Amino acid sequence: MFFMMGITQGRKDFEYNQTVICDRCGTYGRYQVFMTYMCLSLFFIPCFKWNKQYYVQSACCNTIYSLDPEIGRQIARGADIEILPQHLTQVQAGYRSCYKRCINCGFETQEDFEFCPKCGRRF
């Protein structure tokens, strides 16, 4: 009899959108919420998940925070909850890039332009 199983680590990103002023870099950013977990698969079908941990990553400087598990479970169920600073514990410090990047064409520059020199859109 042939039996296939495996244990893998997975990540699930949630549809969550909260605009904040980042405590680390002081600019406007957005929280991106995700969950990591371990998963047992039988015949390539995920059957059991454990060790679920919820994290928040700031879009401005990529700082990663550990999120309170109860708040994470509510966000996973689709609740529209505001994440407060007391719900977060910093795990990994981020960095602020010295480059400006155009969201329209992807052009990067270190100059202090207000508009992209390639496509003319505001940075």
Walk me through the structure.
With 123 residues, this protein is mainly beta. Helix content is 7%, strand content 45%. The chain has one helix and eight strands. Strands 1, 2, 3, 4, 5 and 6 form a six-stranded antiparallel β-sheet that branches. Strands 7-8 form a two-stranded antiparallel sheet. The mean pLDDT is 88.
Got a strand count? 8
- What pattern of helices and strands is seen along the backbone? EEEEEHEEE
Helix share, percent: under 10%
Alpha-carbon distance between the termini? 61 Å
Summarize the structure.
This protein is mainly β. Helix content is 7%, strand content 45%. It has one helix at residues 69-76; strands at residues 5-13, 18-21, 28-42, 45-58, 64-67, 88-92, 100-101, 108-109.
Supply the key terms.
six-stranded antiparallel sheet, 123 residues, mainly beta, single chain, 7% helix, 8 strands
